[in-house]
Amino acid sequence: MDDAFSTQNEILQIEGLEQSYGAISVLKGIDLRVKKGERIVICGPSGSGKSTLIRCINGLETFKSGTIHVTDVHNGERLRRLKDIRREVGMVFQSFNLFPHLSVIENCMLAPVKVRGVKKTEARERALYFLNKVRVLDQAKKYPGQLSGGQQQRVAIARALCMQPSIMLFDEPTSALDPEVVQEVLATMVGLAKEGMTMICVTHEMGFAREVADRVILIDGGKIVEEAGPAQFFDTPRHERTRAFLGRVLRGHPETARGLAHS
Amino acid sequence: MSFDFAAVVSATPYLLQGLLFSVELTLVAMIGGMLLGTFMAIIRHMGVPVAAEAVRAYVTLMRSIPLILVLFWFFFLVPLLLGHLTPTGHSIPLGPRFTAFITFTLFESAYYAEIVRAGLKAIDKGQYEGAKALGLSTSSMYWSVVVPQVLRATAPIIVSQTIILFQDTALVYVLSLTDFLGAAAKIAQRDSKLVEFYSTVAVVYLLICSMGSELSERFRKKQGQRSSNGRLERAKRMFGLARP
Asked: Measured between CA atoms, how close is B158 to chain A, in angstroms?
């Protein structure tokens, strides 16, 4: 029986999630509950299943067994259809996935008009608002190909925000960016977190995790190895594998180590 | 040997009639073929059960038989088949014009379908995922995101196919229809001026097809794909001496 108090405000419940590609088991039973306004950072070695996990949430991946429940924040009811879930769950990809044949502002207007039935004028207002928020308003008339990587990713964030989702998923949003522009995108994400957006973020940026996360989760070999608040996760991890992972990450990214030391 | 250009000039109205038919047929077959072909390509790309297999069979069939055979088959056999379906059993004649428009459209759609299908597969998977993640319906995804990109990318190949289609319209002579080449041939034989008429026809075909290639080049450039060129390069391209 669900404890009524603990399920209050929960907008995502994942139970016993399993997925495999042929004989290779990628997710071996994941349980995760996310409350409204929580910021979850998921990290782990390559191939650990972390991307697969968040892609299962909005149906970009199917799964063999287990359940994923997304709750509509507006009326507290479970969202049953995939199209409803995708309306409420926004996603930002490692490779941006902006539509190259549409201008920046058209990219942002497309989904609200087609999916939420928003009038074009209102969609334009909304797009300008969010583009301004991520500080690429001056690029509104340009095409994605004319923008830098950091600008493109910020446009991608604005595009997802234009749908006014209740949950934002980030799949390694800065992994394809040059180091000098990583910070501008992370700053945008931090701003989003500060406004109370529910976020689930797969990333290697440990400084960001430390600053913003409510919970940090380590996934390795398809299972959740450690799940804790950032202070405990980074300073006093319980599991050996977490320690090993942190050691590897910090050795490979001295700037992240500096980031962690400063925060 | 003298070149009696005046004979060509005086036959211009008749030639223009033939040219009009050629252009009409090309446009109908191109537009109809692209609509049908794109629809079939999407069905196959999505893997719709049964329908995708039917499309595959149809495309394979149409691309295996020469157009001239398809024209014959449609003109002579389909009326017979239709006749079997009616109570009287008489074959229902389909006029040659109707046959030409329908057959060319159906034939070309198979070729356009393969071009579009290749384009659909070539589009980065992330585009499909980005559209899905935004909640776009399948039809919106194809209509607003994927197909526009496919058409921009495949425009040069579609133009090539359409140029071939334009040249193939000459085959309507088997249905006793008069296209541009047919009109020229008739007058040329009547007036015994084969050289003049066939040369003129060749030049006109050359001009029209080159214009088509130039159009696709302009369209490609408009999409922001700049190619280094000056006038010499453009002229070279028109005459097939440089890559389009």
From this structure: 19
pLDDT digits (tens, 9 = 90+) for A174-230: 999 998 899 999 999 999 999 999 999 999 899 999 999 999 999 998 999 999 999
Contact flag A115-B130 (C-beta cutoff 8 Å): no
Residues A107 and A92 sit within 8 Å (Cβ to Cβ): no
Q: Inter-chain contact B144–A114, Cβ cutoff 8 Å?
A: yes
Give B137's contacts in chain A (Cβ within 8 Å).
83, 114-115
Rounded to an integer, what distance in angstroms lies between the CA atom of residue B201 and that of residue B204? 5
User: How many Cβ atoms are within 10 Å of A230's Cβ, its own excluded?
Assistant: 20
A101–B137 CB contact, under 8 Å: no
Count the residues in chain B.
244
d(CA A181, CA A188): 11
DSSP labels, chain A: ---HHHHTTEEEEEEEEEEEETTEEEEEEEEEEEETT-EEEEE-STTSSHHHHHHHHTTSS--SEEEEEEE-TTT-PEE-SHHHHHHHEEEE-TT----TTS-HHHHHHHHHHHHS---HHHHHHHHHHHHHHTT-GGGTTS-GGGS-HHHHHHHHHHHHHTT--SEEEEESTTTTS-HHHHHHHHHHHHHHHHTT-EEEEE-S-HHHHHHH-SEEEEEETTEEEEEE-HHHHHHS-SSHHHHHHHHHHHHH-HHHHHHHHH-
Report the C-alpha gap between B30 and B195 in whole angstroms.
Answer: 31
Taking an 8 Å cut-off on Cβ atoms, the answer to whether A93 and B126 are in contact is yes
Single out the residue of A131, A183, A192 nearest to residue A162, CA to CA.
Answer: A131
Report CA Rg, chain A.
18
Query: What are the pLDDT digits (tens) for A58-68?
Result: 999 999 999 99
Q: pLDDT tens for residues B220-240?
A: 776 554 333 445 555 665 666
Q: What is the pTM of this model?
A: 0.85
Query: Can you say how many angstroms the Cα of residue A148 is from the centroid of all Cα atoms in its chain?
Result: 21
- HSE (side-chain half, CA atoms, 13 Å) at B68: 6
Farthest CA pair distance, chain B: 72
Strand partners, A38: none
Task: Please give the ipTM for the structure prediction.
Answer: 0.91
Of A59, A99, A145, the CB nearest to B145: A99
